[in-house]
Write a structure and sequence with these properties.
Strands 12, 13, 14, 15, 16, 17, 18, 19 and 20 form a 9-stranded antiparallel β-sheet that branches. Strands 2-3-4-9 form a 4-stranded antiparallel β-sheet, with no helix packed on it. It is of the alpha+beta class. It is globular, with a radius of gyration of 22 Å. The protein has 2 domains: about 140 residues, Rieske Iron-sulfur Protein; about 180 residues, Naphthalene 1,2-dioxygenase Alpha Subunit, Chain A, domain 1 (Alpha-Beta Complex), CATH 3.90.380. About 15% of the residues lie in helices and about 25% in strands.
């Protein structure tokens, strides 16, 4: 490994400069309820992670025992921490080793500690940052779930809104491709006709993204409804639907759909880059209507929409998102896509292109 690769995961699939930039941001790795005292396995930006809870503390660390390099996710838990399967070394609060069974009376070497990463519980998810800016993360802020630069989700904490965290799923595609598909409004009439869209409503009314400090926002007004196919009569025939997109670079976006009256549905699309070509999708949802309906039905409908997108996203070429002009040809409806690519380029990312 050359000096330019120092600090990168051993099998990094990103360009070194891009990895270092991406590692500064927050990404979800699990639902809050999925991480218990037992070691939980995750992967973020090619970095293997272990997550666990001990004495009311959440710990997220590199998934390797500093004794002999065995993954700690092969181990177990005993209430005082996670126990390595190879020699029984135990790691507890702060990732510090607190037991060496073979030498119980000897002082534990200070180097027997895990590489721990900042972790935040927010929107029903556990968010992790692998390389925060120096001084940018304070323990108190992390514990309060208000770490700097964490993506915002409209209405999540508002009174009257139900909070739903859909099961995660994986997409065999670059995270940027998946996010670009989420904010695309021209594909509704072609891809989502089995869930909510009308195949006869193909025209995309003009809209204009507006740049923000963390990305951009876009208000898209159209007559394309958002009720499931087969549900009729709940909106006036001439009702104009507002879809408000908020993009938080690099890989998170929220969509707030304005239903008739004061009804609102908010979907967060949090694309977590497992590697350059595998993305783990997390989708918290907030709504202030139809709260009597089954949460399992919400899971199923949300997954069905994402599954409609899967073939397109996993089949696109080039595999990664081209930030330079010339690889594909934009059309008028691509304003959000162009704003997204400009934002990534503005942050200094490379071409995100696999030759």
């Amino acid at each position: 490994m050359g000096s330019e690769d120092a600090g990168l995961p051993p099998r990094c699939t990103f360009e070194p400069s891009d990895w270092r930039k991406l590692a500064r941001y927050w990404y979800p790795i699990a639902k809050v309820e999925d991480v218990t005292e037992r070691p939980f396995k995750a992967m973020l930006l090619d970095e293997p992670l272990v997550a666990y809870r001990v004495k009311n503390e959440l710990v997220v660390a590199r998934d390797v025992c500093p004794h002999r390099g065995v993954p700690l996710t092969l181990g177990s838990a005993d209430g005082e921490g996670i126990v390595c399967a190879y020699h029984g070394l135990r790691y507890g609060v702060g990732g510090l080793c607190n037991r060496v069974p073979s030498s119980p009376e000897q002082r534990i070497p200070p180097r027997l500690k895990l590489t721990v990463y900042p972790a935040v519980e927010k929107y029903g998810l556990i968010w992790v940052c692998l390389a925060p800016e120096e001084g940018a993360v304070q323990a108190g802020a992390v514990q309060a779930g208000c770490a700097p630069d964490l993506p915002a989700m409209p209405h999540w904490d508002d009174a009257g809104f139900q909070q739903i965290v859909c099961p995660a799923f994986e997409v065999k595609a670059f995270a940027g491709r998946q996010v670009e598909g989420f904010i695309d409004v021209a594909h509704f009439a072609w891809i989502h006709t089995a869930t909510f869209a009308d195949p006869n409503k193909q025209e995309v009314p003009e809209y204009m993204p507006v740049e923000t400090p963390t990305g951009f926002v876009a208000d898209y007004w159209s007559n394309i409804g958002n009720y499931p196919i087969g549900v009729d009569g709940r909106a006036p025939p001439d009702f104009r639907w507002l879809r408000h997109f908020e993009v938080h670079l690099p890989f998170t976006a929220t969509l707030t759909i304005h239903f008739p009256g004061t009804a609102r549905l908010v979907i967060m699309n949090a694309a977590s880059p497992v590697s350059a070509m595998i993305t783990r999708m997390f989708a918290p949802i907030a709504r202030n209507f139809d709260q009597h309906l089954s949460v399992e039905d919400v899971y199923a409908f949300n997954l069905k929409i994402f599954e409609e997108d899967r073939l397109m996203v996993e089949s696109q070429h080039p595999e990664r998102l081209p930030l330079e002009f010339g690889f594909d040809t934009p059309i008028a409806a691509d304003r959000s896509s162009l704003a997204y690519r400009r934002g990534l380029k503005r942050l200094g990312f490379g071409p995100f292109f696999l030759v």
